Amino acid sequence: MIVTDRQKILVIKLGALGDFIQAAGPFAAIRRHHAEAEITLLTAPAFVDFASSSPWFDKVEIDRRPKALQISAWLELRAWLRNSGFTRIYDLQTSDRSGFYFKLFWPGSTPDWSGIAPGCSHPHSNTRRDLMHTVERQQEQLSMAGVAGVEPGNFSWTEADINKFALTEKFALLIPGGAQHRPDKRWPVEQYTALIRHLVSRDIQPVLLGGIDELSLLTELASSDPLAVSLAGRTSIADLFALAQKAQIAIGNDTGPMHAAAASGCKTIVLYSSASDPALCAQRGPDVTILREDNLSDITPDRVIDLLEA
Fold it and tell me: What is the pLDDT of residues 252-262, one digit of tens each?
């Protein structure tokens, strides 16, 4: 038996959900560029199942994110990085944390490294990189590392059975939550309530999506009409894509699940305030509309309904 050594590649992408989804094009491009290599993803626990089912990676490892004084955890991470035999590392997180991982190879040789860590072999050297949209920024980073042909993310491989949710034939996804410490990114409850009533008048079931930490918000909104349903904390990432592929429309704040809706091809309306800049992070997909006002309360339900009916 002939044994051949496969090149070993590491991709670092920790989150959040929207950033992870917008890295799908780079993930696929790295897979094509290193078709015969063993590719490992280092990521957050929330993305392990989804990434493991994807066609992009051979292995998926969890970043335990050791804190500053957790010396043994840092030594364990350092040993894993140094002993895994990676010949090239793509840092698609490009954060202070992931950049510090480059320093864990000292002293000694470092693998080829694409990112922004000082001294790395393939730096993304554009000084205006922080002014680029996430998608174009990652495309340029990989181009500078010799990886061309980064295409929009393709999620046709995703599978999930949404029959378990027992929804009506016609439904719309509403995503009213977001980071709790960013209330200025949330459209007011009364606006969502008006939208729910309009959808019900059109015999479209309002389906509210969000994490378990948004249970009270989604329960409050679902109580505004018997047809509305909350799926708070009940959906996987694969479920988000499957639901969006069947939905009439997805409407919501600038938050992670809206990236899944947009990338799935669903008609998507995203509501932005001055708290985030769509030029840097807007959802991408074939049918995405961005509505933006400095104060989200200035976006009236009628404006959203007009787009819904268009």
Answer: 999 999 999 99
Judge whether 285 lies within some domain. Answer: yes
Residue 289 DSSP SS3: strand
pLDDT tens per residue across span 101-145: 999 999 989 999 999 999 999 999 999 999 999 999 999 999 999
The reply to whether 194 and 304 lie within a common domain is yes
| Angle subtended by helix axes 189-201 and 301-309, to nearest 10 | 30
Residue type at 52 in one-letter notation: S
CA distances from 18 to 13, 153, 165, 246, 281 (A): 11, 12, 24, 20, 9
Q: Which of 174, 261, 165 is nearest to 217 (CA)?
A: 174
Q: How many CB atoms lie within 10 A of CB 181?
A: 6
Answer yes or no: is 31 within a domain. Answer: yes
Q: Which domain holds residue 211?
A: 163-309
Residue 120 in domain: yes
Its pTM surpasses 0.90: yes
Judge contact between 71 and 42, C-beta under 8 A: no
CA 271 to CA 289: how far, in whole Å?
A: 9
286 — phi, psi (to 5°)?
Answer: -75, -15
